[in-house]
Amino acid sequence: MQKLQGIAVSPGVAIGEALVMDNEGFRIPRRFVARDAVESELERLDNAVRAAGEEIAHNRDAVAEELGHKYGAIFEAHYQMLGDTQLRRELDDMIRQRHYSPEYAVSRTLRRYGQVFQNLENRYLAERANDIFDIEKRLLRHLLGRRREGLSHLTSPVLVLAHNLTPSETANLDREFVQGFVTEVGGLGSHTAIVAEALEIPAVVGTGPFLSDVSGGDLAIIDGDQGLVILHPDEETIARYRHEKEELRTLAVQLESLRDLPAETADGVGIKLFGNIEFPYEVDHCVKRGADGIGLYRTEFLYLGAENEPDEEVHYEAYCRVVKTMGQRSVTIRTFDLGADKIAHWPSPEEERNPFLGLRSIRLALRNLPMFRTQLRAILRSSVFGRVQVMFPLVTTVLELRQAKMVLADVMEDLDERGVAFDRDMPIGMMVEVPAAVMMIDHFVDEVDFLSIGTNDLIQYTLAVDRSNADVVGLYNASDPAVLKLISMAIEAGRKKSIPVNLCGQMSGSAIYTMLLLGLGLRQFSVTPGAIPEIKKICRSVAIADCEEVARRSLTMENARDIKSYLREELRRRVPELAP
Ligand code: PEP
Ligand code: MG
């Protein structure tokens, strides 16, 4: 049994067989083969070596003819290495004597060779390691054949263990069969983590390297509450986790009974609980949990993973599905927040050195007006079917906000001229997720109908910590007093101006912050749909006066650790069943 500690990003427990992906997205098969399959596996290796050899010889001849023998010699070296008898003997022995699969034998042996080269002092020789990795990939391609298809064509339940998954790869995971996932890299606020919650499967990221210790078909447990991954669990551990799964199910059933009750504090203050969604189908998850509306629709997921830029009709259909389902409940559609870790195929950005500080979000929209206008048209057209609000992400300056509003006004005028119906009074809001926006919040509140605080980005830009980097996860902290002060300022500015203030970062769905946020004056939370029952339970269990005391005390503390343990203790005291 082997335990790995990572970062918990989506709750729940999953127990099942591993599907292992290497860092190029190859599916790595089982490590062992049956004793009676050894001869046929050796033959498979033979075929792969022969096919790879023919390919290399072809490349060698073609390159030599085009560019001369000096360049053809690069491939000749690969050819020689592939035909090396010592290498071949090692591979055969691993299959024959240790019953390793040919893929595993190839990967293990060639990586070991490659590492020896990499560690050489001589730079020229060290770079030869890449030639060896190239041979490894070529052999694996031939061995894996159709099984290279990665995560498609699943036929049974699996836990995906991968080096990394991008937000769009995660979005495309097969919801029928993928029961949970683990990645070696990744941080707390990454969009990969956010999509895991949308899929409602347990997930752990940022475990560090472990894929070489596991192979396809091995048994594993993902504990998405503790951020734990257990490889090769023993019977006792499996039984314990099965029991825990049962308990979680019982708690979920208890919370479900709150579905039709209002989110109201013990002293009668009404709170609104909205859902965050990434995909239209999640609107059903929100209805099921009794959400008061959609507080954040991350529309950029329409672009991610799509082959071409979605046209107006694709947008329109998606928005109509959500808006019509919610009826008289409000739907806040955020204009696309592409860039940083959410990269679509277009507009194809240059590789940026600091993508989180680069051309993302509203900046990208203002540079790609036709794309922006297409989306705004679809949002406006959908507004006749319900209560739509539009929201601009990552607004940093007042001028930027005014520019976005001008584009919207222009699109409205166009629709008017064409006689297309839309809600003329559609509320316009902005995300507050850059410290500069908080500093200037008194100006912003004169320009918008509502604010929504995006703590995922606000934390990263305030504390200068990349939200998707596991190496600095200890520094990424919602409890930081600087972050709390900024949140407090934004809530207060909205209150003074009497405009609604929502909070839609991951923090609003985390039980330990509910009392603090209520105490700071927040009356609207937008959370991943699965968290709605829990947050409602806390709201209904506490009184505002107590929350104000919690907020007041928190704001006097000077470090995140003290604040967090104080908040944890307060939650344990008042709603023990939900304390972490
Ligand atoms: C946020 O930054 O808190 C937010 C809600 O936006 P996203 O997570 O999509 O960047
Ligand atoms: Mg954000």
Architecture overview:
- Helices cover 47% and strands 14% of the residues.
- With 580 residues, it is α/β, with parallel strands linked by helices.
- The chain has three domains: 2-27 and 150-250, Glucose Oxidase, domain 1; 32-144, PtsI, HPr-binding domain (Enzyme I, Chain A, domain 2); 264-578, Alpha-Beta Barrel (TIM Barrel).
- Strands 1, 2, 3, 4, 5, 6, 7, 8 and 9 form a nine-stranded mixed β-sheet that branches.
- The model has no long low-confidence stretch (mean pLDDT 92).
Low-confidence stretches: none
Number of strands: 17
Query: Structural class of the secondary elements?
Result: alpha/beta
| Termini Cα gap | 25 Å
Question: Could you list some keywords that capture this structure?
Answer:
580 residues; alpha/beta; Glucose Oxidase, domain 1; Enzyme I, Chain A, domain 2; TIM Barrel; 3 domains; nine-stranded mixed sheet; 22 helices; 17 strands; globular; binds phosphoenolpyruvate; binds magnesium ion
In short:
The chain has 580 residues and is α/β, with parallel strands linked by helices.
